[in-house]
Design goal:
Layout lengths: L1 E5 L3 H12 L4 E5 L3 H10 L1 E2 L3 E5 L5 E3 L3 H6 L3 E4 L3 H11 L6 E3 L17 H8 L5 E5 L4 H6 L3 E6 L3 H11 L4 E6 L2 H23 L4 H21 L10 H12 L4 H10 L4 H8 L4 H15 L5 H10 L5 H9 L12
Parallel strand pairs: 1-2, 1-6, 2-5, 6-7, 7-8, 9-10
Antiparallel strand pairs: 3-4, 8-9
Helix pairs in contact: 4-5, 8-9, 8-10, 8-11, 8-13, 8-14, 9-10, 11-12, 13-14, 14-15
């Protein structure tokens, strides 16, 4: 199979490595910048985004027009952040190969839009003819690049695309499961980043393991309620893109979103915290959109609301926690808070 990965960040590089290592595919990693492409070809390493991992000689490096690279492929994997998905999908409109994206988040509202959109909604607007889906799940790029055991989920209403994604990546170190609930998988991938900021804040304030467990559990309830309101299935949130990705991102030391919460707890400014990462923390950019979507469908998300208030500077870290703890008691269900 000819596979093209569009985007040379850490996650795109790791996925390209995983596909190339299977030894049965012709894999190309496309990058936007010609200078970066030259550096990757020369060093055979992505020193900027994923240092320490040799790029095998079988992994081709390309730059130039993304559409030219995509038209030569059997499968296109888009590895841009959510903010870049709209433009990339516009370029791919009319592409014959199926397309899957790796980004996790909600795109901000565009001109004339009341609220932001999930990635598959962006695709339906700018490239409605594409056969499309998402590859998601609990995964740090460094561990995938190491070949450490990882499980992902390929979600799409297109059964053939789900099968292609499994065939492209499933191997001894990487298992890929199929799911037709693209709404649930995308909601899980977006909301867990917001909740990871809250959990990092909790850990940074040294509130204890009891508090962390409560936050993750109630966060999962928020995620599920929003997903159900948007048309997802409840069981999806007990899977890899729900509970699995939430636990990883909320507790793992490699989590950039968790790191944002830790730094805010130290008293660092949001701008300083984000700048220190050197990579995108999707929870920062999509938290407001998650809350906006929840309000439109009448879903309460107090943890996500607290994160937005914190990011906007309306609450201090300790006050954000206090606001959650002072809420009125209620029953533990998925439909009330």
């Amino acid at each position: 199979m000819k596979i093209v990965v569009l985007g040379g960040g850490a996650w795109g590089t790791a996925v390209a490595l995983a596909a190339a290592r299977l030894g049965i595919h012709a894999v190309t990693l496309w990058v936007r910048d010609a200078a970066q492409a030259d550096e990757l070809r020369r060093a055979r390493e992505n020193r900027r985004y994923l240092p320490g991992f040799a790029l095998p000689s079988a992994l081709a490096i390309a730059d130039g027009a993304a559409r030219i690279a995509a038209d030569a492929a059997h499968l296109v994997i888009v590895a841009t952040p959510v903010a870049g998905l709209h433009d990339m999908l516009q370029r791919l409109d009319g592409c014959r190969a199926p397309v899957a994206w790796l980004c996790k988040g909600f795109a901000p509202a565009g001109e004339g839009e009341a609220v932001g959109r999930m990635p598959h909604e962006v695709c339906a607007t700018v490239a409605p003819g594409l056969r499309a889906g998402v590859l998601s799940g609990p995964s740090f790029a460094q561990e995938v690049a190491h070949g450490q055991p990882t499980a992902l989920v390929a979600a799409s209403p297109d059964a053939e695309l789900r099968s292609l994604l499994v065939a492209a990546l499933h191997g001894s170190g990487l298992r890929v499961y199929a799911n037709d609930d693209i709404v649930g998988v995308e909601v899980g991938g977006a909301v867990k980043n917001v909740l990871a900021i809250a959990t990092g804040l909790c850990d940074g304030l040294q509130l204890g393991l009891n508090a962390r467990a409560a936050l993750i559990t109630r966060g999962l309830a928020e995620m599920t309620r929003l997903g159900l309101a948007l048309g997802a299935r409840a069981d999806t949130f007990m899977g890899l893109s729900g509970l699995g990705d939430l636990v990883l991102t909320a507790t793992g030391d490699l989590s950039r979103n968790r790191k944002v919460g830790l730094l805010l707890a130290e008293g660092r400014s949001l701008a300083d915290a984000v700048a220190s990462l050197g990579h995108v923390a999707e929870g920062v950019s999509c938290a407001r959109t998650v809350v906006q979507r929840a309000r439109v469908v009448g879903v309460e998300m107090p943890i996500a609301e607290g994160v937005v208030a914190l990011l906007d500077g309306r609450l201090r870290p300790a006050d954000a926690v206090a606001a959650l703890m002072e809420r009125e008691p209620t029953a533990e269900t998925l439909v009330t808070v």
